[in-house]
Automatic annotation (TrEMBL), chains A, B, C, D:
<dbReference type="InterPro" id="IPR016143">
    <property type="entry name" value="Citrate_synth-like_sm_a-sub"/>
</dbReference>
<comment type="similarity">
    <text>Belongs to the citrate synthase family.</text>
</comment>
<comment type="pathway">
    <text>Carbohydrate metabolism; tricarboxylic acid cycle; isocitrate from oxaloacetate: step 1/2.</text>
</comment>
<keyword id="KW-0456">Lyase</keyword>
<protein>
    <recommendedName>
        <fullName>citrate synthase (unknown stereospecificity)</fullName>
        <ecNumber>2.3.3.16</ecNumber>
    </recommendedName>
</protein>
<dbReference type="GO" id="GO:0006099">
    <property type="term" value="P:tricarboxylic acid cycle"/>
</dbReference>
<dbReference type="Pfam" id="PF00285">
    <property type="entry name" value="Citrate_synt"/>
</dbReference>
<dbReference type="GO" id="GO:0016829">
    <property type="term" value="F:lyase activity"/>
</dbReference>
<dbReference type="InterPro" id="IPR036969">
    <property type="entry name" value="Citrate_synthase_sf"/>
</dbReference>
<dbReference type="GO" id="GO:0005829">
    <property type="term" value="C:cytosol"/>
</dbReference>
<dbReference type="InterPro" id="IPR002020">
    <property type="entry name" value="Citrate_synthase"/>
</dbReference>
<dbReference type="GO" id="GO:0036440">
    <property type="term" value="F:citrate synthase activity"/>
</dbReference>
<dbReference type="GO" id="GO:0005975">
    <property type="term" value="P:carbohydrate metabolic process"/>
</dbReference>
<dbReference type="InterPro" id="IPR016142">
    <property type="entry name" value="Citrate_synth-like_lrg_a-sub"/>
</dbReference>
<keyword id="KW-0808">Transferase</keyword>
Length: 249, 249, 249, 249
């Protein structure tokens, strides 16, 4: 049993067969080395650009469970910045922020189909019949269209990606509109799933990309909390708004 | 009470006063936007290069508490990649990986002193007298010298950093050698503290840089664990090596 | 919107409509008040006895992912005992320790059936056909029989439980043996699921019982780690046993 | 290297030298076995009663960082009850809920002094001069007196505790009132520190008692959240109350 990620001896440190000091520090950026470690090969420049776009998109969304939790946990353990961030990251789950998997799983299935139009029909009809939301579609707030997907698609195109997953997502989008009889936007989650598949990020660790990106956003939330504390105010708000009452007899 | 980090309306999303879609995605990389969110201004290109070097350096160290925990926790909740990563990040603490603060606090104090030589003497003597390790110095393994600091200093110099914190750390290093009567290497922790101070990263969230970087490494550990599981083997090893025995009567 | 769990004013603190100081402290034990808070009513003495038996059973299993993680995380943040415990609890998941839900879900379904024999046949046949393990049955280690279920059933009987869930689990057990053509033990997970249903613990928070119980065990692991540290030794073991190697070209 | 906590073979499971099935399940309650595992010996009945009183006191405090975090994290990962609880427990830190250590450390120091009156004077004067709060004294809300300590002291007395730590805390309280020239209540944290010292709970894992107790309260919060969700409402409240605004130029 071996690990191929990182090891060291007295004089050198190696990451995936490369010398950290001689070949990586100062020569490759964070995004490249993240890809190298996670995927196992150095990315092409276009892949780096796409991964950067994904990481930037996911970095923060203002007030979310992740940021509220991080600030509350930080306020309880202010000497331990990592505790606030890690507590917040636990909310990158099946409901928010960690939800690219669903759409990516669909796209990874559809890409192998000969007749994509038929597959799109089938998938959308099945979701509609089961009253399940189509992963990667719809947004409670950004209507009629989420502004991020078109920009992300353009970045991928300019970066020279092949575009098959994006095309499939867009074809799925046209089918969604036709089958539901109204326009449902492709959302950021859907677009990110397509882009990460374009660059060969394995589905099984896609949620890790959200986690890395959000850890940066949560660091910023803690920095702001240090300057302008909100945690005690949030606490007071909640106490006033949802008071205790003896249970009904 | 306001937040200045991120907000959105139906048509746009803003990060620190900039439009995410128009101004950031595809135009600035992860490292730049992390700095923008955490520090509050877009970094100079040289600052980005230095932050990238720091993030790359910290990304992984092979087998550490962080990576063992992440793999064990992943194996227990394989549908929840974020749980494995967050569990591992909880070990970026006062002992490993989260230890730049100590050296950074020293350097931030010393930089304000007129007579740096006197301050260095005083600090090193005080640590020696109290038998406390000098933060940022020594390495159990990389002897006589940690290979990372010289490379990190060169990156900072090439990136046009002013270099005051680095010079102070080096002066502290010469004093350490003189006072202890033997050579103690500046370690990666010390060098990273100096570099992060050079780029204006606030001391109070410096540990967040370790967390962000290590979250990328832990994603890679989970990717490798998915391919070549080690968690059950580690468990068996520990059970065999540290068996249960009834307590002595 | 209200909460009915706990609230206070200057002179008193209330838990679920009772005065903490006058009615609970010194008058009811931990197990009773846990039930009161989680289920919403004070337990009958027999229910307390059964819940105590469940909590004792789950408290520890020696070396497991939970205990290894807790000790490693504690060693990294020794000033923060809660971090070690919480990190370990993250591994009370779908794979180990948090697995009563599956069997409990089956039993909650079967209890409503008129013809229990037919339902048992159907369920066991379906699991067998799908090659899915029967939740609550089998043990890698305790063969032919897990010693805990008979004891747990006896406690429940002596405590005056009605016994319908236990009887159903036992009937399922006989069906398992007949359908598989060999004896598969009812395991502790299965028995605990039945007992917790007997006392009216809601399925949706059953895993919380594991968490509470295991938090006590992990406190003990950290106490032992403080006396006889193992974390560094585990680390060394893993490093030696699973060395780094450059990836194959 | 050995562990003395728990181990098993095919036919039996042992906790600290006792057979789980034959000697513990159904014969000893959760509180007793928690003490057995953590402290290493079976408690006296009076010690169990005192530990129960401590565990009940700490179980919940309504809206606190722990409960807000647990509910928000649960809402983000509803299939993983342990994630909500563990996230909440991370806030049992140096600021709330995990704060008995400070007072316990004082009492453990004072108990060894010959002249307790002189020691009390010295300690209280030193805290006052340094403008540091006296650990275990004062309450923002329960004025003039926290109702829990008198009840806890009575439980300890009735349970036959020796009472030296309690007497010392009370003597410290009289000194506090004299030195500060006004009445500061002994708070629950102080009283719990004294009681846990009375029963021989090691200072180094005292915070574990809070964690165990609070894990029960958080299970109840998640149960209530499942019935009457608050997380989305809290989110909306915070968004409305602390809106995003572009940073000042």
């Amino acid at each position: 049993m071996k690990t191929h990620l990182a090891g060291s001896d007295a004089a050198s440190i190696r990451f995936r067969g490369r010398d950290l000091v001689e070949e990586l520090i100062g020569k490759h950026g964070f995004t490249e080395v993240f890809y190298l470690l996670a995927v196992g090969r150095m990315p092409e420049p276009g892949q780096t650009r796409v991964l950067d776009a994904c990481l930037v998109t996911l970095m923060d969304h203002g007030w979310t469970p992740t940021s509220m939790i991080a600030r509350l946990a930080y306020d309880s353990a202010p000497s331990q910045v990592q505790v606030g961030i890690a507590a917040g990251l636990l909310a990158v789950g099946d409901v928010f922020a960690g939800t690219m998997d669903g759409c990516a799983r669909l796209l990874a299935e559809g890409i192998a189909k000969e007749d994509k139009a038929a597959w799109c029909q089938e998938v959308v009809q099945a979701h509609r019949a089961a009253k399940k939301p189509m992963p990667g579609f719809g947004h409670p707030f950004h209507k009629p269209d989420d502004p991020r997907p078109p920009r992300l698609f353009r970045v991928a195109q300019e970066a020279g990606m092949k575009g098959d997953y994006i095309a499939l997502l867009q074809q799925l989008g046209r089918t969604v509109d036709a089958v539901y009889g109204r326009h449902l936007t492709i959302n950021a989650t859907g677009a990110l799933a397509a882009l990460l598949l374009e660059i060969g990020m394995p589905l099984a660790i896609m949620r890790g990309v959200s986690v890395v990106s959000r850890s940066a956003g949560l660091t910023a939330h803690i920095a702001e909390e240090q300057q302008n504390p909100t945690a005690r105010h949030i606490w007071k708000l909640v106490e006033e708004e949802i008071p205790y009452e003896d249970p009904p007899a």
